[in-house]
Amino acid sequence: MPLSEQPKIQLFYKPGAQARGIVVVDRRTSASRSRAHRRRKYQTVAREAPPNFVADLQRLRDWPSMKGSLWRRASLVKLTHAPNARLLTGSISGRNLKILDVGCGTGCISLELSRMGHDVLGLDRNERMIEIATNTKKMSKSGSGKLQYEMADFDKWVGTTGAYDVVIFSRVLHDLPDPENALLKAQRILKSRGKILCLEYAYNMMDKKTATWLYQIRKPLELQDWYSSPHLPDDPGKGVDLIMHEAVTGRKQHINTFEEMIRPLKRLFHQEAFSWYPYHFWDVLSDMRIPNLRIEERLATMVKNLEEYLLGTGEIEPALFLYKGTKA
Questions:
Q1: What is the pLDDT of residues 134-170, one digit of tens each?
Q2: Which of 55, 79, 119, 232 could make an S-S bridge to 106, C-beta 3.0–4.6 Å?
Q3: What is the predicted pLDDT for the residue at 297?
């Protein structure tokens, strides 16, 4: 969208501010647009996936019609979904395990686990996602493990006590209404010494330094008409404040904080490993729209590598954590 056609940030003066020459961004309009944009973005796979879409990490290809999704380009999936799958599959030891994948989405991780010889049940409450996962299973070469999918809301799903060796939450626990109850259920359905793996988004870790870095990435892309996310103010201070507002203070729907997830994890399971990983770049890559695909790929790789570097030096805050624990 050309800059001239983008939604304008509404400005107003607070009482007493005009005399001091202070212009304030009206976030009531801009943030509501940003929230609606984020909701649409995370529904894009279900909405945009063509009937023949296959989410197979070992047979990646471009899906140009999926413009709002990382699956539109194989190179973007290699930087995002594929490393996440390796984090999870690499955290599982043992053979012929029985695994529950909560919020399995497209089924790309469930498929990789079945290829390792594990019996996997993938749950998701979205009917279209289960259709995609099932179609991917039919169109792909699976392993010796049994792979099944079920449309179910984990909060209402019962499950058999002591049935699973591993329970996985991959970017879903932060969205569940009661993470403690969800983890209590996971503990119940795990076998003795069973493992829990949580690869989760901690949105409230965003701070001003991280928002400043994101503004430095997003605004130049926007000025080139290479970014589809709602317009950021030209004033850096207002732009940084708006990114903070989008991520933390402006949320109307509750998303579980890092503390709301890590407390029950530590109480119900013995921690084996914990680590942070880059994740802010996912949003940038999702919204980038660079016509030259070679430049897009190089810039996407640079943004990911830069986030990894800044996390390593402590310059910015992380947003994605991996927790591995054993049933207490």
A1: 999 999 987 889 999 999 999 999 999 999 999 999 9
A2: 55
A3: 97
Taking residues 313-327, what's their average pLDDT? Answer: 97
pLDDT tens-digit profile of 42-98?
478 999 999 999 999 999 999 999 999 999 999 999 999 999 999 999 999 999 999
Rounded (to 5) percent helix, strand, coil in the chain: 45, 20, 35
Q: What is the pTM of this model?
A: 0.86
- Tokens standing for residue 204: 């409230």
User: Is residue 123 within 8 Å of 157, Cβ to Cβ?
Assistant: yes
Is 217 a member of any domain? no
For 281, other C-beta atoms within 10 Å of its C-beta total: 22
Q: Tell how strand 11-12 and strand 147-151 pair up.
A: unpaired
In a domain, 248, yes or no: no
Judge contact between 188 and 328, C-beta under 8 A: no
Q: Which domain holds residue 277?
A: 42-202+257-327
Q: How far is residue 125's CA from residue 59's CA, in Å, rounded to a whole number?
A: 26
Total length of the chain: 328
CA–CA dist 242, 126 (Å, integer): 31
DSSP string, 208-227: HHHHHHHHHHHHHHHHTT-B
Give how many domains the chain has, as a whole number. 1
Decide if 65 is inside a domain: yes
26-35, 36-45, 61-70, 239-248: least confident range: 26-35
The CATH number for 197's domain is: 3.40.50.150
First to last CA, the chain: 53
User: Is the pLDDT reported for residue 23 higher than 50?
Assistant: no
In a domain, 8, yes or no: no
Q: Report the alpha-carbon distance of residue 306 to residue 301 in Å, rounded.
A: 8
Q: Which SS3 state, helix, strand or coil, does residue 114 take?
A: helix
Residues 6+ apart with CB under 8 A from 263: 180
Alpha-carbon torsion 65, 172, 312, 317, what sign? positive
